[in-house]
């Protein structure tokens, strides 16, 4: 097993306290608890990527909406920063599964409207938009409309738009869904690039693709339901397991997918996943 | 064979008679041209004596235009149609956009149900309200178009996915800003398309409305007068002119839509 990197945990970035959600008579989430703290490394910029995994229909998207402030929990609270402030929409960047954009605005227009809502002046918005377009290799698409972009370009614009508005916290819903191997690698590189661009950059990837998440994440949270003594699922999902990939020497390394420790961890998570 | 691959029109004519095939624009233009020629020949060769021949119709068109002021009547009708269309668009779009307010939804739903009412039955009430003449015709046209416009546009607003609203909300937009960007600007291309359909409805209704109130004249009044005297060549001539002006209006709104909403026609696919 590779040696774990030296790191320390600093202030809280996100805290989910006893969050429950009931829709109609259905208990979807039951006392979900987890905390993401700022990770600092002595030798590198260490933003972080958290993979929130769970089977389809378990309530990942509902939790995603709660973390984004788009929905209020039935009980409990989601706190952002330190000291914790109850999450409100706009505090967290949200990249939904199909990369929604304003179709009637150009790429630059999409970034400018997001920047304006964050209270920046027009000059600041233009400067930041130009920087992001350059970083995301979209400068030549600034005056194109979303309907003229490829899927990968749209995803990058959607991420850039959220960064214009929400700075360092990004939630991504199923970013690996339906991608071929090359596109998957590109998205993973993109996520890695954003997370290492700034110390406080934090990305939560909500997905059911275990291997893809494992390759890019520092922490894996497993969302699932408990079973009763007869093996029947009890309503209400909660965090069933937390995998610290830094401790396992699986974080901050490229090309680990074929290493024995990666395969071992993947197998362990898959076995647990199958029971959820 | 796909529409994105330019091809010779004669590539495979059998594709014209196979389901779900795409053919080139040139091939389609040739098909339309051939069908128009066939229609003209059928018209020319028609055995029905009552049906005026094309040359009679064009001669009648000349008489109407130069001797009976068809151009002026057409201008009167067209102007009133545009005025009614403008009023309808403002009223209908306002009502459709306001369906974001739950309190307004029942009112808009009730207005949309008005499309099942007969215009003839409402004429008396509208006459009492509008006083007759141009205001009466305007009121009838606006009512007739609004009930359909509101129905279509309210459906467009209702079909906006929740994810589009959520996306705007994640950018810290207030609810009214969400309405402006997602509902108003985001559906502008569809609003113009609905306007286009309702312009056609209004243009079709115009002759009927001008028949109800013949003050000020208009092509509708002229059409009914020619009908009354059984001048079939003149009737056909007016109908053809109404059709051509309607098509021109439809084309103009399409050009306007493409100019104002370029995103609606742009795709990654190369045509």
Entry summary:
The complex is a heterodimer of chains A (276) and B (271). Chain A is 31% helix and 29% strand. Chain A has 276 residues and is of the alpha/beta class.
How is this structure best described in words?
The complex is a heterodimer of chains A (276) and B (271). With 276 residues, chain A is of the alpha/beta class. Chain A has helices at 60-67, 107-117, 122-135, 151-166, 181-195, 210-216, 260-274; strands at 8-23, 26-40, 48-53, 75-80, 85-86, 93-95, 169-173, 202-207, 219-227, 233-244. Chain A is globular and about 60 Å long. The model of chain A has no long low-confidence stretch (mean pLDDT 88). In chain B, 72% of the residues lie in helices and 0% in strands. Chain B has helices spanning 25-45, 54-67, 70-97, 105-113, 119-130, 133-158, 162-170, 175-185, 188-212, 219-228, 232-260. Chain B is flat, with a radius of gyration of 23 Å. The chains are: A alpha/beta (276), B mainly alpha (271). At the A-B interface, helix 2 and helix 4 of A face helix 7 and helix 8 of B.
């Amino acid at each position: 097993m590779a040696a774990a990197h030296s790191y320390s945990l600093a202030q809280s970035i996100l805290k989910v306290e006893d969050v429950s959600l009931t829709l109609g008579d259905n208990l979807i989430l039951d006392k979900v608890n987890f905390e993401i703290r700022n990770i600092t490394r002595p030798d590198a910029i260490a933003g972080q990527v958290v993979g929130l995994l769970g089977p389809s229909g378990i309530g990942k998207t509902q939790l995603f909406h709660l973390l984004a402030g788009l929905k209020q929990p039935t009980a409990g609270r989601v706190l952002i920063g330190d000291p914790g402030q109850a999450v409100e929409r706009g505090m967290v960047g949200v990249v939904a599964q199909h990369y929604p954009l304003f179709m009637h605005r150009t790429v630059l227009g999409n970034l400018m409207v997001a920047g304006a809502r964050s209270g920046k002046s027009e000059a600041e918005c233009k400067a930041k938009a130009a920087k992001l377009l350059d970083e995301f290799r979209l400068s030549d698409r600034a005056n194109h409309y979303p309907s003229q972009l490829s899927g990968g370009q749209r995803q990058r614009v959607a991420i850039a738009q959220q960064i214009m508005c929400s700075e360092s916290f990004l939630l991504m819903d199923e970013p690996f869904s339906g991608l071929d191997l090359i596109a998957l690698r590109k998205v993973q590189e993109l996520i890695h690039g954003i997370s290492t661009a700034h110390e406080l950059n934090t990305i939560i990837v909500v997905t059911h693709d275990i291997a893809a998440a494992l390759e890019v994440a520092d922490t894996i949270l497993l969302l699932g339901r408990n079973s009763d003594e007869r093996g029947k699922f009890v309503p209400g999902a909660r965090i069933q397991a937390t995998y610290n990939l830094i401790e396992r020497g699986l974080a901050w390394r490229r090309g680990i997918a074929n290493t024995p420790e990666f395969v071992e961890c993947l197998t362990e998570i898959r076995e647990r996943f199958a029971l959820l | 064979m796909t529409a994105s691959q330019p091809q010779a029109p004669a590539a495979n004519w059998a594709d014209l008679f196979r389901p779900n095939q795409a053919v080139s624009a040139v091939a389609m233009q040739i098909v339309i041209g051939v069908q128009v020629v066939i229609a003209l020949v059928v018209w020319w060769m028609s055995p029905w004596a009552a049906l005026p021949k094309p040359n009679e119709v064009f001669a009648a068109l000349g008489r109407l235009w130069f001797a009976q002021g068809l151009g002026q009547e057409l201008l009167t009708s067209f102007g009133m149609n545009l005025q009614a269309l403008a009023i309808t668009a403002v009223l209908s779009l306002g009502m459709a956009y306001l369906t974001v307010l739950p309190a307004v939804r029942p009112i808009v739903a009730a207005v949309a149900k008005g499309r099942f009412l007969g215009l003839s039955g409402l004429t008396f009430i509208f006459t009492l309200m509008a006083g007759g003449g141009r205001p009466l015709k305007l009121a009838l046209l606006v009512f007739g178009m609004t009930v359909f416009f509101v129905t279509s546009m309210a459906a467009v607003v209702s079909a906006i996915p929740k994810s589009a609203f959520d996306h705007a909300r994640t950018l810290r937009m207030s609810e009214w800003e969400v309405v402006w960007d997602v509902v108003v600007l985001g559906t502008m291309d569809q609003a113009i398309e609905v306007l286009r359909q309702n312009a056609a409805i209004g243009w079709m209704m115009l002759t009927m409305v001008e028949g109800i109130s013949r003050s000020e004249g208009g092509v509708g009044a002229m059409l009914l007068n020619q009908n009354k005297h059984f001048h079939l060549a003149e009737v056909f001539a007016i109908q053809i002119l109404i059709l051509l002006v309607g098509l021109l209006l439809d084309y103009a709104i399409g050009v306007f839509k493409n100019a104002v909403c370029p995103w609606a026609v742009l795709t990654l696919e190369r045509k």
